[in-house]
Design goal:
The protein is 41% helix and 17% strand. By secondary structure, it is of the alpha/beta class. The chain has a 6-stranded parallel beta sheet with strand order 6-11-10-9-8-7. It has a 4-stranded antiparallel beta sheet with strand order 3-5-1-12, covered by helices on one side. Strands 2-4 form a two-stranded antiparallel sheet. The radius of gyration is 23 Å and the shape is elongated.
């Protein structure tokens, strides 16, 4: 089975993280710094504080905390108690920050915002994963991500037990209705393809022009809206067929059609997926369920900074 590249904490993720740090510090500290702390806290004050969860959730973003602290004050030290993917309950520590009190107060919101956002994505993802436990389906993210956060949010999906769909338009082929409708509209008669023709043309393009992409990641996916379109497309053997906005009873029929015509093709359900509907969708027999809500509707997980005695 072909699969999209899956996110890990690597140099590309760190590069995005560092870019967000730069922008976040600029908008928060500007050229003058933390005026309140500078007015009230001596420059030589030292201390320690714990980053503490206020809610139940799944942790994500731990590998980036030290870089966030270094961006504010290089003497700050981070000692983690949790790792990414760990569950956490109210009152539990993610870790302890030690060093300059001025630096800690300046970095507090930066650290909590980044951890809260990524842990919120991981937590919501884990709820979807748990909702379909025992079925053969996997939960996938989409490209409905926060601009500038895509690699990080997709990494957080993995921390929550989900899987990554394509990173971007440059990562895999997904033939959607608008690709086919443009040719069919008369704008370009030479580009008027049937779904099956589009799959074959896309595969030829990947195999001739995209040799830099590993063969097992040269994925051609096709979106269909009806069972008839599915039947037309299956003989061309797309790697995945996306079943758009089909209710569970129609998904059941789609799985039966696929099993009869071309059982090697994976089926992905998309559209209308929420925590109330995802179980029934998974029980239809599809292998993949893509959920835009994982990233566009995740709520920030609440963390706080609590001072430690001494």
């Amino acid at each position: 089975m072909k699969e999209f590249s899956q996110s890990v904490w690597n140099a590309a993720v760190e590069e995005d993280w560092n870019g967000l740090l730069e922008l976040s510090l600029l908008e928060d500290l500007g050229d003058l710094g933390d005026l309140t702390t500078l007015a009230l806290v001596p420059a030589d004050a030292r201390g320690s504080a714990a980053v503490v969860a206020r809610q139940v959730g799944i942790v994500a973003g731990i590998p980036g905390v030290q870089a966030a602290l270094d961006a504010v004050e290089t003497s700050l030290q981070w000692s983690p108690d949790k790792k990414d993917g760990d569950p956490i309950a109210p009152g539990e520590r993610l870790g302890v920050i030690s060093g300059s009190v001025q630096g800690m107060l300046a970095a507090e919101r930066l650290v909590l915002n980044l951890l809260g956002r990524l842990s919120g994505v991981a937590t919501l993802t884990s709820r979807y994963v748990e909702a379909i436990r025992g079925t053969k389906a996997n939960i996938y993210d989409t490209r409905k991500t926060t601009p500038g956060w895509r690699r990080l949010e997709k990494y957080a999906v993995r921390c929550g037990g989900g899987r990554n769909h394509r990173l971007g338009l440059c990562s895999a082929v997904l033939i959607k209705d608008n690709h086919l409708a443009w040719g069919a509209s008369g704008n370009s008669p030479s580009s008027h393809y049937t779904p099956a023709e589009a799959v074959l043309r896309a595969r030829d393009y990947l195999n001739s022009e995209c040799l830099h992409i590993p063969e097992n990641e040269r994925i051609v996916e096709l979106e269909v809206d009806t069972l008839e379109q599915l039947k037309q497309a299956l003989p061309s053997s797309p790697d995945i067929v996306l079943l758009d906005n089909m209710p569970p009873d129609v998904l059941l029929q789609a799985v039966a059609v696929r099993n009869e015509m071309n059982p090697g093709v994976q089926l992905e359900a998309s559209g209308g997926v929420n925590l109330n509907t995802v179980r029934a969708i998974a029980e239809s027999g599809v292998e993949r369920i893509s959920v835009g809500a994982l990233t566009h509707s995740a709520v920030v997980l609440d963390f706080g900074l609590d001072w430690l005695d001494g």
